[in-house]
């Protein structure tokens, strides 16, 4: 069901990945982000500026190599997960990776701090998964396996790279818009009033689309986890249990008015994710990864 009390129509909620809408549409959201950037560049300098913005984005992606997973783990103060004391967790990851067809097994780390959390970074050729202490000690084996399946689905799809692309596009849009505003206010560029207003709001539009891509990838990873687990039941159980642990450990107040609006969240609500999993049709499991296997795998 759509989110209650939302002023947005259902189809907008689905497009912005506030509410599950079936198949992943991250590509369409990326196209919209590119369109916003192109429109902003056109207002500033026509076709020439569009080409310049496209070249700038391409150069940023080309010369902005992926940050190594090991470096990210150091920034997070995560430590390697001892395979001797957590042998079962490492075995779970190995079995899930074999089923997903990952060429390399992710390296496992443990995160400091409270709450159940997991972070995946890297690509399918070199991935690290960090798991919080509360996850290691607060989840049952089936719930832990479900959480790991979700993270492995992120790794399989290369979601870190997708989010890097959205970040570059957003930053380029912000730069072009601010440059346009600066020229309009302090330079000899005299656009009409509506154009100045658009320069002011397009960074926000791009930001909201970027958040929608992130939420979309969460729904897709839930679907992938359901496939790896041969059904959504374990993933649903894990999500509900994690939500209860985090409310207790982090002292979260269960009132929406005290939290950011859904449209600004990086993750869909637990209710939306559970509804999305329950809406999966029997028979789609075991096909999600098979339909995306690389040639020769």
Automatic annotation (TrEMBL):
<feature type="transmembrane region" description="Helical">
    <location>
        <begin position="50"/>
        <end position="67"/>
    </location>
</feature>
<keyword id="KW-0479">Metal-binding</keyword>
<dbReference type="InterPro" id="IPR050083">
    <property type="entry name" value="HtpX_protease"/>
</dbReference>
<feature type="transmembrane region" description="Helical">
    <location>
        <begin position="23"/>
        <end position="44"/>
    </location>
</feature>
<keyword id="KW-0378">Hydrolase</keyword>
<dbReference type="InterPro" id="IPR001915">
    <property type="entry name" value="Peptidase_M48"/>
</dbReference>
<dbReference type="GO" id="GO:0006508">
    <property type="term" value="P:proteolysis"/>
</dbReference>
<dbReference type="Pfam" id="PF01435">
    <property type="entry name" value="Peptidase_M48"/>
</dbReference>
<keyword id="KW-0862">Zinc</keyword>
<dbReference type="GO" id="GO:0005886">
    <property type="term" value="C:plasma membrane"/>
</dbReference>
<keyword id="KW-0482">Metalloprotease</keyword>
<keyword id="KW-0645">Protease</keyword>
<comment type="similarity">
    <text>Belongs to the peptidase M48 family.</text>
</comment>
<keyword id="KW-0812">Transmembrane</keyword>
<protein>
    <submittedName>
        <fullName>Peptidase M48</fullName>
    </submittedName>
</protein>
<keyword id="KW-0472">Membrane</keyword>
<keyword id="KW-1003">Cell membrane</keyword>
<keyword id="KW-1133">Transmembrane helix</keyword>
<feature type="transmembrane region" description="Helical">
    <location>
        <begin position="168"/>
        <end position="186"/>
    </location>
</feature>
<dbReference type="GO" id="GO:0046872">
    <property type="term" value="F:metal ion binding"/>
</dbReference>
<feature type="transmembrane region" description="Helical">
    <location>
        <begin position="192"/>
        <end position="209"/>
    </location>
</feature>
<feature type="domain" description="Peptidase M48">
    <location>
        <begin position="90"/>
        <end position="279"/>
    </location>
</feature>
<dbReference type="GO" id="GO:0004222">
    <property type="term" value="F:metalloendopeptidase activity"/>
</dbReference>
